[in-house]
Design a protein that fits this description.
By secondary structure, this protein is α/β, with parallel strands linked by helices. It has two domains: 172 residues, HUPs (Rossmann fold, 3-Layer(aba) Sandwich); 92 residues, Pantoate--beta-alanine Ligase, Chain: A,domain 2 (2-Layer Sandwich). Helices cover 39% and strands 19% of the residues. The chain has ten helices and nine strands.
């Protein structure tokens, strides 16, 4: 595996791939890698001839009171994990490379950025959309892979890719979970043992609501109450619990057989904010 830090090095690498007619898969990350990230890289190897990954803790997607300074980092360990997952090129630019002096171009995606994390984290999806657009334009991959755990982010990226006609397949991959059901996240490292135990309320509530829908429950209020009860029991402070259309992210009041649903939750354990979601449909 080769590690590079400049756009010029990336362009030299991708130009060689183009000459050889090889298909490229890209996996953008913010590092502190876990099995969820590595599953994307391995899937990229099944979908393309060559896999590239990026590690960049993007300052543009953090608010002034968020955890940019303390976001967990492990560059040496991350590089070893990328190599073990079959990554051929790892791009690790500094912020001044991505946003040089005088930088003033931003990408916004209107409708699917509204609500959910978009409302709670103002400017977050502008930062996400901008850096992903820059990476897709730089690497020009045939396929880019993202996890479904950040479901609103995935829909934002799908929308910008279609609207800007970037010609990249955006492949969403299932959330990877710990054996007890907790969605894998770099921010899980912040949790104390007690908070880690209580964090299971997010996935447990989602799974209970998912089972209720399979049993025939259609009302959003009833399904959301299942999740909220779990959060309250575990003393997880709710940020949001919502039922949305899985493609447009429009709010849903009832489930219908022909409507793809997504149940999404965000909650705080101490200062740590966790998110999770599941597909939900009538049985």
């Amino acid at each position: 595996m080769k590690t590079v830090t400049t756009p010029e090095e990336v362009r030299a690498f991708t130009a060689a791939l183009a000459r050889e007619g090889k298909r490229l898969a890209l996996v953008p990350t913010m590092g502190f890698l876990h099995e969820g990230h590595l599953s994307l890289m391995r899937e990229g190897g099944r979908r393309a001839d060559v896999v590239a990954a990026t590690i960049f803790v993007n300052p543009a997607q953090f608010g002034p009171t968020e955890d940019l300074a303390r976001y967990p980092r492990d560059p040496e360990g991350d590089a070893k994990k990328c190599a073990s997952a079959g990554v051929a090129l790892l791009y690790t630019p500094e912020p001044a490379i991505v946003y040089p002096p005088g930088y003033q171009t931003w990408v916004t995606v209107d409708e699917v950025s509204k609500g959910l994390c978009g409302d709670r984290r103002p400017g977050h999806f502008r930062g996400v959309a901008t850096v992903v657009t820059k990476l897709l334009a730089l690497f020009r991959p045939q396929v880019a892979l993202f996890g479904e755990k950040d479901f609103q982010q995935l829909q934002v990226i799908r929308r910008l890719t279609a609207d800007l006609e970037l010609g990249v397949e955006i492949a969403g991959q299932p959330t990877i979970r710990e054996t007890d059901g907790l969605a894998m996240s770099s921010r899980n490292a912040y949790l104390s043992p007690d908070e880690r135990r209580r964090a299971l309320a997010l996935s447990q509530g989602l799974f209970e609501a998912q089972a209720a829908a399979k049993a025939g429950e259609t009302k959003a209020a009833v399904l959301l109450a299942r999740v909220r009860a779990r959060l309250a029991q575990a003393e997880v402070r709710e940020d949001y619990v919502e039922l949305r259309h899985a493609e447009t992210l429009a709010p849903l009041e009832v489930l219908a057989p022909t409507v793809p649903g997504r149940l999404l939750v965000a909650g705080f354990l101490g200062k740590t904010r966790l998110i999770d979601n599941v597909a939900i449909a009538l049985g």
